[in-house]
Write a structure and sequence with these properties.
Length: 161
């Protein structure tokens, strides 16, 4: 497995968009589809899934994964953290797509948040922060990440664990 730093990953994404003449939203769909394929190969439909999505493109990845898993029959609860009221364009597009899925459980967190109980049988999708993160996480997000890490749930992190 090759590991790349954030700057290289952003460059790879930009080059892929340019060379393959696709949009960033189409690239996001590809990434979400690949992650969804891995999840469905490893976890049964009976596995409760909780997605924690941030307001940027990493959050958009998480929302797209949630949408794909719901369509495949998984029970997914999605928390979209949007305290500043501004989502990236691609994240907002995936939020709208998720709203259009019958039975989708999407909770948009703008102010207060009650952490759900994460149990051993849960699968958590961490799509809170992506390659744009360049400072230590603290405050509410730090507490959220600590709670996820302290849980017995299995965690799949998108971009940045």
């Amino acid at each position: 497995m090759k590991l790349f730093d954030s700057k290289v990953i952003r460059n790879i994404d930009a080059q892929t968009i340019k060379l393959e003449n696709i949009t960033s939203l189409e690239l996001m769909e590809r990434a979400a589809s690949a992650v969804t394929d891995e999840i469905t190969a490893r976890w049964a439909q009976s596995t409760p899934v909780i997605v924690f999505a941030g307001k940027g493109n990493n959050g958009g990845d998480g929302l797209a994964i949630a949408r794909m898993l719901i369509r495949l029959g998984y029970d997914v609860t999605t928390y979209l953290f949007n305290p500043s009221g501004g989502l990236s364009e691609d994240c907002d597009a995936n939020r709208q797509a998720l709203f259009n899925i019958e039975g989708a459980k999407l909770i948009e967190v703008c102010k207060s948040f009650n952490m759900p109980v994460l149990e051993e049988n849960h699968l958590v999708i961490d799509a809170i922060f992506g390659t744009g993160l360049n400072t230590p996480v603290s405050g509410g997000f730090g507490a959220l990440i600590q709670s996820i890490n302290d849980s017995e749930a299995f965690v799949v992190s998108i971009d940045m664990p």
